[in-house]
Structures are given as structure tokens and as C-alpha cells.
Design brief:
The protein has helices spanning 10-21, 32-41, 81-87, 107-115, 157-168, 179-200, 204-209, 211-230, 239-248, 257-263, 274-284, 289-298, and strands at 2-6, 25-29, 43-46, 52-54, 58-60, 69-74, 92-100, 120-133, 136-150, 172-175. With 306 residues, the chain is α/β, with parallel strands linked by helices. It folds into two domains: 2-177, NAD(P)-binding Rossmann-like Domain (Rossmann fold, 3-Layer(aba) Sandwich); 181-301, Orthogonal Bundle (N-(1-d-carboxylethyl)-l-norvaline Dehydrogenase, domain 2), CATH 1.10.1040.10. Strands 1, 2, 3, 4, 5, 6, 7, 8, 9 and 10 form a ten-stranded mixed β-sheet that branches.
Length: 306
């Protein structure tokens, strides 16, 4: 497959790197010193699942230099979605699939508006990975899974081809017949996890062990679930408890990417996570006091340190 990775940070760099290491033709769209590092030294992945180095690695800051591809992995930060969706137009030919591995629940709508729903493949990335230095992706833990599927749930040739490519690359994956349900399943956990770890400037371990902060976290999960179900998403009644149990199994020192961004003075995805739960809750008449507090408390940090 000819694959372009739009957004070659922790998520795009890791999964695109695994595909490239297995022999797929992958070009990374990056910028700044990260692009320079990939061009000069290749793309390196450090992981408990096995290290990998793609050298030389194809990389550019201009999608027009790549041209139409079979698949675009769309993994930019949520605040870059609109700009990046327009920037990938040169990559999208008549049969191109664009799979989004972003956080939040809005990315399929953004891509469908720009490129048409027929090009969009919904996706969920379950991984903790960051750029540690230009051209180097560090994967923490052993969770590295992709869930993806056509928006209408059908098993198309292109999702079958992606599944085969991921299998050959040794990447854990699952084809979904209801990708919006899977996107919201992640959103319930991520909105609370990112919001509370960033709010408290702590990894998840201390938060889940202190009874009062654990209760706050649980309520954040419950608020997101209530919003999802009000929107007609078919999530189970006991999902809050499922996500609490999943949280208990996470490494004690695990941080959200939003906390990592906050610590580095970067822009935050807050408006598309806790902020989105608040916005949709207001539209649907669902109270979201935990996410409302998180959104207000972190509001002055949303644009980063400049």
C-alpha cells in the first residue's frame, strides 16, 4: 500500500513506523526539527514491544510532493484538524481512504465535510507514545492497538487491506462494525482521564487511589457516558464501572497526552475533550459539572505558553 501519515507524532509516527518497517511504502508528513531528524537519521521507535528504525525514511512537509495514495493516516492534534484536512487534498484520489486516529469525537465529521464521507474511515488509537527528540518516538507501556471501520459498518476491500497490512506489521487491531460506538467508548475514558490528570498535574495512580479524587474521576466517566447515550450511542449501562476497572489496570505513572502538553507549554486539546462533553451536555440538557470544572480551570492554558 502507498500510505501517507499526516501528523507524524506519537500516534502517527508509531503506527506509520510499524507499517514502514514491515515493507509498506510510507511517507511521513512532518515539520520543523522533527522533520529534519527523520530526514537526517530516519524514524526511530523505542518500545517494550520491540524497537525499530526506518532508515532512510520518506518525509516531507508538503503533501503535494507525495500525490494520491491508497491510505492517509490522519493523526494531527485536534486543534489542527481543519487546516490539516485541507492540506491533505493532494493525497486524496478517487479511491483513497482517510483513517483518523485522533482523539475526540469530531474528526470524522471534519474529514467528511472536506473530502466526502465516502473517503473517511473512522478509527481509534489506544497507545501512549510521544516524540522524545527529533525523529524518535517513545512508546510507553505495551498497549498499542488500532480499531477502525467504515462509517456505515461494511467490510470494504480497503479496510480489509489495512487489516492485512497491520497484521503483517505485528500491530494489534480490530475491524469495527460500529466505529462511532468505539470512538465514544474511548471518549468516555479519555475525556475524564485527560481532564483529571491535567487538572491535578499528576499521573493516574494517585488520582485513582485517593477516595475523593477517585469519586471525581468516576463522575467524569459517568457524565461522558450520559452524553453519549443521549446522542443515541449504544454503550452499555455498566460502562462507567468497566472504565474504572480499565483505569485501575493502567500503569501507576501513566500520564495523558494533554498533561504532557500542559507540562511542555503546548496547546491543549481541551475544547475537544472535556470541553466537548460540556458543549454537548448543554445541547442535550445533561449536567456535566466535573467536565465543566475541568474546562474552566484549564481554560487559561488552552493556547499554551506561546
Amino acid at each position: 500500500m502507498r500510505i501517507a501519515v499526516m501528523g507524524s507524532g506519537g500516534v502517527g509516527g508509531y503506527f506509520g513506523g510499524r507499517l514502514a518497517a514491515s515493507g509498506q511504502e510510507v511517507t511521513f508528513v512532518a515539520r520543523g526539527v522533527h522533520l529534519d531528524g527523520i530526514r537526517q537519521r530516519g524514524l526511530a521507535i523505542t518500545s517494550a514491544l520491540g524497537d525499530a528504525t526506518i532508515r532512510p525514511a520518506k518525509a516531507t512537509d508538503d503533501p503535494a510532493r507525495i500525490g494520491p495514495v491508497d491510505l492517509v493516516i490522519f493523526a494531527v492534534k485536534l486543534y489542527d484538524s481543519e487546516r490539516a484536512a485541507g492540506a491533505i487534498r493532494p493525497l486524496v484520489g478517487p479511491g483513497t481512504g482517510v483513517v483518523t486516529l485522533q482523539n475526540g469525537v469530531d474528526s470524522t465529521d471534519v474529514l467528511a465535510r472536506v473530502h466526502g464521507a465516502e473517503h473517511v474511515i473512522g478509527g481509534v488509537a489506544n497507545i501512549a507514545a510521544v516524540i522524545t527528540e527529533p525523529g524518535v518516538i517513545r512508546h510507553t507501556g505495551t498497549m498499542a492497538r488500532v480499531v477502525f471501520g467504515e462509517l456505515d459498518g461494511r467490510r470494504s476491500d480497503r479496510v480489509a487491506a489495512l487489516a492485512e497490512a497491520l497484521r503483517a506489521a505485528g500491530v494489534d487491531h480490530r475491524l469495527s462494525d460500529d466505529i462511532q460506538r468505539d470512538i465514544w467508548d474511548k471518549m468516555v475514558l479519555l475525556s475524564a482521564f485527560s481532564g483529571l490528570t491535567a487538572l491535578m498535574r499528576l499521573p493516574i495512580g494517585p488520582i485513582r487511589e485517593e477516595p475523593e479524587t477517585r469519586a471525581m474521576y468516576r463522575e467524569g466517566l459517568a457524565e461522558a457516558l450520559a452524553v453519549a447515550r443521549a446522542k443515541g450511542i449504544s454503550l452499555p449501562d455498566d460502562l462507567t464501572e468497566q472504565k474504572l476497572a480499565q483505569t485501575d489496570a493502567l500503569p501507576y505513572q501513566m500520564k495523558s497526552s494533554m498533561l504532557e502538553d500542559l507540562e511542555r507549554g503546548r496547546r491543549l486539546e481541551l475544547p475537544w475533550l472535556s470541553g466537548a462533553i460540556v458543549r454537548m451536555g448543554q445541547e442535550l440538557g445533561i449536567a456535566t459539572p466535573i467536565h465543566g470544572f475541568v474546562t474552566t480551570a484549564l481554560k487559561l492554558h488552552v493556547t499554551g505558553a506561546g
